[in-house]
Design a protein that fits this description.
ABC transporter involved in vitamin B12 uptake, BtuC, single chain, mainly alpha, 14 helices
């Protein structure tokens, strides 16, 4: 099975991602003239402009594209797998577990040892949550069982985060944890890019490979098995892709919500509504949306930079409600 899309959907989304990436590099709190930007790109220019563009804005732009693509793709894959239009990575506890690992690194001061300790611990706890998910769900292939097990894991991870805030040794540690939980791409480096990129590539490959499985599941578990789908193997690939991909993304960006929830709803009307047709457009849409949102937090005049997770929530809720009212009869 293969889904069909509007012929202009992928080209338009690709152009939007490129424009958002260029805007992310060109725009920011410090104004740079086109001449200074071009001079840096031509391997010249002054040191200040080069430092801003190459060391600050470039890794931030790359992470916006990488993390946004992973969140959009994971949302589309989960909505197809669980046949639930409200599904995203937090439903199965993956994001919450990754956040708990990052919070633990901040709480115990491990993040100060090396920049990669925080993302590594976030990915490790995401994989541990995957093991707990399989243990709780047992051999059942039912999406409802996975959702219930995921809710239990997410609740436990949320309790651990709340406990760390409650027992935080000083207000500065609590502020650092809260800042990370609100999500941001500020002050990220190429080390964060190289941490997230392999995880996102592996996770994306595992999710995209199951497009046929997602289409078959629209017929239900019995219908999918009748078509020769191995549901246990498919579930393993899906959960592993989510744990590695979303864990790696959340590890470097912090908790950013609503991207995986609303992007599939935005692109669905331009497809035949089959799950496989949503995967790649949702990845491109997520990359464009998060990168544009990151430009917004830099340009909105505030005393301190607005957190990215806050802006995506403020933008995501009304957009989601509008599309929910329009599309509720078409799902």
């Amino acid at each position: 099975m293969s889904g069909r899309r509007h012929p202009l959907l992928m080209p338009v989304l690709a152009v939007l991602v490129v424009l958002a990436a260029l805007g992310s590099v060109a725009l920011g709190a410090v104004a740079l003239s086109p001449a200074r930007i071009i001079a840096v790109l031509m391997e010249g220019g002054d040191e200040v402009a080069r430092s801003i563009l190459v060391d600050l804005r470039m890794p931030r732009m790359l992470l916006g594209v990488i993390v946004g693509a992973m969140l959009g793709l994971s949302g589309a894959a989960l909505q197809g797998y669980l046949r639930n239009p409200l599904a995203e990575s937090s439903v199965l506890g993956t994001s919450n577990a990754a956040a708990l690992g990052a919070v633990a690194a901040l709480y115990f001061g491990l993040a100060q040892v090396h920049p990669l300790v925080l993302p590594s611990l976030a990915i490790a706890t995401s994989l541990a949550a995957l093991g707990a998910l399989f243990l709780l769900a047992g051999p059942a292939e039912s999406p409802l069982t996975l959702i219930l097990a995921g809710i239990a894991i997410a609740t436990l991870a949320g309790a651990g985060i709340s406990l760390s805030l409650n027992l935080s040794p000083n207000p500065f540690a609590a502020m650092e944890i809260m800042s990370w939980l609100m999500g941001s791409l500020e002050n990220r480096s190429y080390a964060h890019v190289w941490t997230a990129l392999p995880c996102v590539m592996i996770g994306s490959a595992l999710l995209v490979a199951d497009g046929r499985t997602l289409d078959a599941l629209t017929l239900g578990e019995d219908g999918a098995q009748a078509l020769g789908i191995d549901l246990r193997a498919a579930r393993m690939r899906m959960m592993l892709g989510l744990a590695v991909g979303v864990g790696g993304a959340v590890a470097v960006s912090g908790a950013i919500g609503f991207v995986g929830l609303i992007v599939p709803h935005l692109v669905r009307p331009l497809t035949d509504r089959s799950p496989s047709a949503l995967l790649l457009p949702s990845a491109l849409g997520g990359a464009a949306l998060l990168t544009l949102a990151d430009i917004g937090v830099r340009l909105i005049p505030t005393s301190s930079e607005l957190k990215l997770g806050v802006l995506t929530a403020l933008l995501g809720v009304p957009v989601f409600l509008i599309h929910l009212m329009r599309e509720r009869r078409l799902w």
